[in-house]
Write a structure and sequence with these properties.
Residues 2-102 form the Ig-like domain. This protein has no helices and seven strands. The chain has strands at 3-5, 19-26, 33-39, 46-52, 67-72, 77-82, 92-97. The strands form two sheets. Strands 1-2-6-5 form a four-stranded antiparallel β-sheet, with no helix packed on it. A three-stranded antiparallel β-sheet has the order 4-3-7, with no helix packed on it. Residues 3-5, 24-26 line the site of 2-acetamido-2-deoxy-beta-D-glucopyranose (NAG).
C-alpha cells in the first residue's frame, strides 16, 4: 500500500534563511512521482512542482528560483529546500505521492 508522511510539522525560520521540508513515503512503484503543493490561508492548495525518481519533474515558474526538491529512493525520502525565505513563503506545504496503478 502506498503511503506518504510529513514528519516535520510546523517550522519557523527567519526571512532570508534557508529551510528544508521533509517527506517520506513507501510504495511498491519503481518510478516514484512526488508532487508538492502550497496552501495559503483560505485558499486551495496549488501545485508547485513535481519530482520523479526517474525522469525530470516540472516546476511552476514562480518556484524555479528558490525551491529545490530532492528525491532519494534509497532512503525513500523527499526534501524541499527553500532558499532565501520570503515572508510570502509562510504557508502549509503538502507533498503527495502518485499512487501506483496495478
Ligand atoms: C517515515 O519515517 C518514519 C521514521 O523513520 C517511519 O516510522 C514511518 O513509517 C515512515 N513513513 C512512511 C510512510 O514510510
Amino acid at each position: 500500500q502506498d503511503r506518504v508522511e510529513q514528519p516535520s510539522g510546523e517550522m519557523t525560520a527567519n526571512k532570508g534563511d534557508p529551510v528544508t521540508l521533509h517527506c517520506n513515503y513507501s510504495t511498491s512503484a519503481t518510478n516514484v512521482y512526488i508532487y508538492w503543493y502550497k496552501q495559503l490561508p483560505n485558499r486551495s492548495p496549488t501545485f508547485m512542482l513535481s519530482v520523479f525518481s526517474f525522469g525530470k519533474g516540472t516546476t511552476v515558474d514562480e518556484f524555479k528560483d528558490r525551491f529545490f526538491p530532492t528525491l532519494n529512493s534509497k532512503s525513500t525520502t523527499v526534501q524541499l529546500m527553500i532558499k532565501n525565505l520570503h515572508v510570502s513563503d509562510s504557508a502549509v506545504y503538502y507533498c503527495a505521492l502518485q499512487p501506483t496503478v496495478t
